[in-house]
């Protein structure tokens, strides 16, 4: 296979091209030499957060014009960037960390450029999902990347229901302030599967907790979640025996309470797992008590 070297002329920045440049997820030494070269030679850089990326670029001694491109301005900014690319400028897209377009703005810009015939290429590198999967100790043969789960409502319970029968290893991103609720919901919906909780990957406080979802609920009852997390959860085939929650509502709530959830959290998690309202669970418990 012909391979390029860094000094290869073909590695020089091409006019009118969008480069998706992956940046480190916590350890600056993970920035590739090609990423450095492209960032130093493009005409401009589109960044999710120009302040964050500005700090990174100044540490690298790179001075480049930047434009912001994020969730809230992508509709206007996308066509503006595409226009500049069509005029022959080259652009590097970077996000706060990792691979642009993976649970990050960027997907739309790639689609727009593809539709307009603008060349798009990638400078691959760190991605928290793949790093966590590789470290998880769970099956890596087939996996499903879920990104962030919907935060609430019907969308969340329907997604959890779908995941119950997913046979592939699941990868979920989560913010620290939502970690406990997500663990409770995963326990309520999927049962006590194996899980790897990957925290602060590549950073000084990197930690991989290989445990079960129930034990993780218990663990985080005592500790305040801090830092960035990726959850890697065993798919249903391997966990089949343990995956099902009891049909009986009282037994389901009791099982959740046994894992350390308060009665209130157990009722909420059971409701989300079953895709019903919290009050339906209350009423069923009262009915069962009266029988
Ligand atoms: N594009 C990025 C990538 O390639 O991984 C993901 C961006 S997404 C907006 C941010 C989420 O990625 C965080 O909330 C966390 O779930 C995960 N993440 C990013 N860096 C991480 C790290 N160092 N350790 C653990 N999780 C991380």
Summarize the SSE layout with pairings.
Blueprint: E1 18-21, H1 33-41, E2 44-47, H2 50-59, E3 66-68, H3 74-86, E4 91-94, H4 107-115, E5 120-123, H5 128-136, E6 143-148, H6 153-164, E7 169-174, H7 179-190, E8 194-199, E9 207-212, H8 213-222, E10 229-233, H9 236-243, H10 249-258, H11 263-274, H12 278-290
Parallel strand pairs: 1-4, 1-5, 2-3, 2-4, 6-7
Antiparallel strand pairs: 7-10, 8-9, 8-10
S-adenosylmethionine is lined by residues 25-26, 95, 97-99, 102-104, 127-129, 173-175, 198, 200-203, 228-230.
Q: Which terms summarize this structure?
A:
alpha/beta, single chain, binds S-adenosylmethionine, 12 helices
Write up what this structure looks like.
With 291 residues, the protein is of the alpha/beta class. Helices cover 44% and strands 16% of the residues. The protein is built from twelve helices and ten strands. The chain has a five-stranded parallel beta sheet with strand order 3-2-4-1-5, with helices on both faces. A five-stranded mixed beta sheet has the order 6-7-10-8-9. The mean pLDDT is 91. The chain binds S-adenosylmethionine. S-adenosylmethionine binds next to helix 5, strand 7 and strand 10.
The SS-based structural class is: alpha/beta
Strand order of the largest sheet: 3-2-4-1-5
* Proportion in β-strands: 15-25%
What hetero molecules are bound to the protein chains?
Answer: S-adenosylmethionine
Helix content: 40-55%
Number of helices: 12
Got a strand count? 10
- Regions with pLDDT < 50 over 5+ consecutive residues? none
The ordered H/E elements are EHEHEHEHEHEHEHEEHEHHHH
Question: What is the distance, rounded to the nearest whole angstrom, between the alpha carbons of the first and last residues?
Answer: 73 Å
Let me know the largest β-sheet.
Answer: 5 strands, parallel
Mean pLDDT: 91
Radius of gyration: 23 Å
